[in-house]
């Protein structure tokens, strides 16, 4: 299966995380979950570390740390991106969304609700990354087939669920979004 196209941006050069590499901090500005934020960080700081440690957005998880598990998936300009390998400095001014963007004023997003209803998570470690990949899929394809869901999620690994319930949850969320849009055609964001 071919994973959904990942965002192609600046990725971690070999050795950038090596101990002893010290760089002077600089100010960086980002747009995260609809808000402008500024952090002071060295140019070798990873976007994952900026999100989790500087901005306390700990929903995004660090799994493999080498771009192969999908646990750290966020959206950059609407495309799923694995931020464990992205230098934060290269993503200034981009539209970044983390899993924290999904619930509004304490209400779960239909994707989150569907995962709860369908048993799409067990330990939950992979779930934020899967939710964001699924969100990207539903943004570009509101009515995906089971095969299309499976293909889109091929880059997100889950050790617990066996994937069947995850796929069922994304399918259910797609139906719920369609219903929500039927009731409120002005609704532009998922
Ligand atoms: S932690 Fe980034 S892909 Fe695994
Ligand atoms: S629910 Fe545990 S890794 Fe996916």
Describe the structure.
The protein is α+β, with helices and mostly antiparallel strands and 190 residues long. The chain has two domains: 26-101, Roll (Ubiquitin-like (UB roll)); 110-183, DNA polymerase, domain 1. It is 31% helix and 13% strand. It has five helices and five strands. The chain has helices at 47-54, 110-118, 127-140, 146-152, 164-183; strands spanning 26-32, 35-41, 73-76, 79-82, 95-97. Strands 2-1-5-3-4 form a five-stranded mixed sheet, covered by helices on one side. Helix 2 (110-118) packs across helix 5. The longest helix has 20 residues, at 164-183. The two termini are 26 Å apart. The structure holds FE2/S2 (inorganic) cluster (FES) (2 copies). The site of one FE2/S2 (inorganic) cluster has 11 residues, from loops.
Features:
binds FE2/S2 (inorganic) cluster, disordered N terminus, alpha+beta, DNA polymerase, domain 1, globular, Ubiquitin-like (UB roll), five-stranded mixed sheet, 190 residues
SSE inventory with pairings:
Layout: E1 26-32, E2 35-41, H1 47-54, E3 73-76, E4 79-82, E5 95-97, H2 110-118, H3 127-140, H4 146-152, H5 164-183
Parallel strand pairs: 1-5
Antiparallel strand pairs: 1-2, 3-4, 3-5
Oligomer: single chain
Radius of gyration: 17 Å
CATH topology of the largest domain: Ubiquitin-like (UB roll)
The kinds of small molecule bound in this structure are: FE2/S2 (inorganic) cluster
What average pLDDT do the residues reach?
A: 89
Percent helix: 25-40%
Structural class of the secondary structure composition? alpha+beta
* Cα end-to-end separation: 26 Å
Sheet with the most strands: spatial strand order: 2-1-5-3-4
The tally of beta strands, per DSSP, is 5
What sort of overall outline do the alpha carbons produce when their principal axes are compared? globular
Task: Report the order of strands and helices.
Answer: EEHEEEHHHH
Low-pLDDT residue intervals, each spanning 5 or more residues: 1-10
Number of domains: 2
Q: Largest sheet at a glance? A: 5 strands, mixed
Total helix count? 5
Query: Which range does the strand content fall in?
Result: 5-15%
């Amino acid at each position: 299966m071919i994973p959904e196209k990942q965002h192609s941006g600046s990725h971690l050069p070999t050795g950038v995380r090596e101990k002893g590499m010290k760089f002077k901090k600089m100010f960086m500005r980002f747009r995260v979950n609809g808000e402008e934020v500024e952090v002071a960080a060295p140019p070798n700081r990873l976007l994952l570390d900026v999100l989790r440690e500087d901005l306390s957005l700990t929903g995004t998880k660090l799994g493999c740390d080498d771009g192969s598990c999908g646990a750290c998936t966020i959206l950059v300009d609407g495309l799923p991106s694995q931020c464990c390998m992205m230098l934060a400095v290269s993503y200034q001014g981009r539209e970044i969304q983390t899993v924290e963007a999904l619930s509004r004023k304490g209400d779960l997003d239909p994707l989150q609700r569907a995962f709860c209803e369908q048993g799409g998570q067990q330990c939950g470690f992979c779930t934020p990354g899967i939710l964001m990949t699924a969100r990207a899929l539903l943004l570009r394809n509101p009515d995906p087939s089971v095969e299309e869901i499976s293909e889109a999620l091929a880059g997100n690994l889950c050790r617990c669920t066996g994937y069947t319930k995850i796929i069922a949850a994304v399918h259910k969320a797609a139906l719920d979004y369609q219903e929500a849009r039927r009731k409120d055609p002005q609704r532009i964001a998922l």
